Amino acid sequence: ETHKILLEVRNMKKLNIGECIAYKRKEKGVTQEQLADYIGVSKASVSKWESGLSYPDILLLPELATYFNISVDELLGYSPQLKKEDIKKIYNELSHEFAIKPFDEVTNRCEKLIKKYYSCFPFLLSMDQLLINYSILAKTEDIKREIFQKCILLSKRIKEESDNITEIKSSNTMEALAQMLLGNSEEVIRLLDNKLIPYSGEDVMLINAYKMQGEIDKANEVNQILVFNNVINMLRLLNNYLSINIMEQVLFEKIYSQGIQIIESFNLNEILTNDVLGIHIVAAQGYLMHKDKEKAICALEQYVNIVCKIKFPLKFKGNEYFTKVDKWFEDNSYIGTSTPVDETTIKKNFAAAITENPAFVSLREDEKYKFLVKKLKRKLDE
What we know:
mainly alpha
């Protein structure tokens, strides 16, 4: 505790302890002289503290904090933990900065914030996600690798220090994602091998527990969110399954058909997720490998039509089927492997998926393809 206080005292200028003392003193309705008498110092000392000309002795910090009924951290204006709203605000600010400022400048700010809130594990998780999302902007592959290594270190810290099982699971997933981006497939398998376990039914138990408590609305909300998660996960797995079986034409067709059925059954075209869009891109690539240009164009048309229905500015919401996921979206939109980045970058990625994809080079002189590209760009330039 003494070591912690010493570190905090070094940062008093940054933390504006004088302003805090003045504010708390006035809030308590006492004079500088009354505070001085209680602490056992001169009125001039209190005046100098409040004006920033000097600072309290380290041994007086606990006594001052006790007098104002606050922690030493609060006295120093320092909060090692952030609320969800604060984390989301910082995430969104940095996300915007990545779109308009030099990459190095923003990553330097990220590092400073990580050091400041090194014990706020939800914040570290959000920084993991942010850095991975924007690693694509790094100038060199070496810089990308450095970012992924930093993300791995952050994830390991959370797993070692946190006692929250959700944070530990999320950090393990983030570590696996960073390892995957580094090409370390053996590490990914080691980290995620425990995923291949039989279904435990814990989600149904949670729903039934809420029902037993008489919280039917909550049970309904949780059930709907879990259905949504499972539907999106199924679509994500089908997307990967489609890619793995890209040369098995019969199976390929069946998988793509199943993906479209899921999208249509749950009206997922109304919900912005990478998986709804991605399956059409993978299908178009596959059809070109099968030498079926017409079907490839049809798949790209599906992609473009979905993007053109998206309303900007982006707002995450459910649909007529998933009516209770909006708040869940809002609370969790800055963390997770599918977290979107800023709007400018999202628009660029929407266009790049077909205009810069090397798989579609052979289509560049095709009139239908050029029409789709024009339609897409017109929508994204609005």
